[in-house]
Amino acid sequence: MLAQGETAPQIPVSSAIWTSDGVISYQLNAKCQDLITRCFERSLITADDPNTIYVNSKLLRLAFTYPYLMHACLAVAFTYDRHLNRSGVRRSLDECYQWSQSTILFNKRLRDPIEPEDKDPIWATATAMTILIFSSPDPCTPGESWPLKNSDQSDLNWLHMSKGKMLLWQTVNPLRPDSLFSVMTTAFAQINTPFPERGMDGIPTALAAICYLEDSSTAGNNPYFYAAHAVSQILDLSHGEVTTAQTQVFMLNIHGPFENLLWHKDPAALLLL
User: Fold this and answer.
1) Which of 135, 110, 104, 134 is nearest to 122 (CA)?
2) Prior bond to 147 cis, omega within 30?
3) Residue 100 to residue 80: CA distance in whole angstroms
4) CA-CA distance, 76 to 54, in Å (whole number)?
5) CA atoms within 13 A on the CB side of 221
6) What is the mean pLDDT of residues 244-255?
7) 134-178: per-residue pLDDT in tens?
8) Are 254 and 159 in contact (CB under 8 A)?
9) CB 64 within 8 A of CB 18
10) In Å, how far from its chain's centre is CA 270?
């Protein structure tokens, strides 16, 4: 990696591949080249979704001119490969390096004004960071994991990351017409589909009882209201049928009294989670 003012890289050999924004440069070795290609060809989220394939293809092109995005993509690729190969729960050195470099460069980038051409790579990097925090937990045993372990400030760090990503929404607006993410409009619309204003329609009777939900229940008088409705939308779906958008519906409704219940390890809130 090179910072401004340092010696520029020598002319690479024909097989060398670089990501560079004119200030920061990073050369992908053969291992990185292979992983990034296989990862995006597999399409991390939904392999048969043409919109996801389109977005991944565009992101891969962007990554070659935005090093912080490339490092994030490589971190996800290494993590994905580790899970596919069942190589253990601990992050590899490659994962840690790529994640660290992306975090450093991304934090620096967010300190400067965001130009129109920066919006998509910024949103993509924030999304990659959220994927990483979910897929790479630190604990190796159930007893070391939340909520079984003693509480500390690292609890629910995945929630902090998710909320941080959504803070960027108004700034980068991934639904703007010129955004490569605009093809995901249907998925974003699904995320924002409103819940019933009151009642327990669609919620299994047993779950409604655990969450103290009745026909008169609303978000104002029951902290489980939105979370229970969100979970009930996917209870009868198989793993392969659940979309990222559907899981995000639940994530975006972890706030207020329900979030407070999670922090205090409330049994019903943990069941919904």
Assistant:
1) 110
2) yes
3) 17
4) 18
5) 10
6) 83
7) 776 666 677 777 788 787 777 788 888 888 888 899 899 999 999
8) yes
9) yes
10) 21
Which residues are bridge partners to 17 per DSSP? 28
The chain-wide mean pLDDT, for the chain, equals 84
> How many other C-beta atoms are found inside a 10 Å radius of the C-beta of residue 5?
6
In whole angstroms, give the CA distance from residue 38 to residue 81: 9
Record the tokens describing residue 112, joined without a space.
């400067």
Residue identified by tokens 């920061």 is 24
CA distances (Å), origin 206, targets 197, 203, 212, 229: 21, 8, 10, 13
The string of pLDDT tens digits covering residues 206-247 is 999 999 999 999 999 999 999 999 999 888 877 767 777 777
Helices 244-251 & 225-232, crossing angle to 10 degrees?
170
- The end-to-end CA distance of the chain, in Å, is 40
Radius of gyration (C-alpha) of the chain in whole angstroms: 21
Residue in 55, 70, 65, 71 with CA at minimum distance from that of residue 174 = 55
Give the single-character DSSP code of 45.
S
11 φ, ψ to 5°?
-60, 120
Q: Which tokens in the block code for residue 229?
A: 């409705």
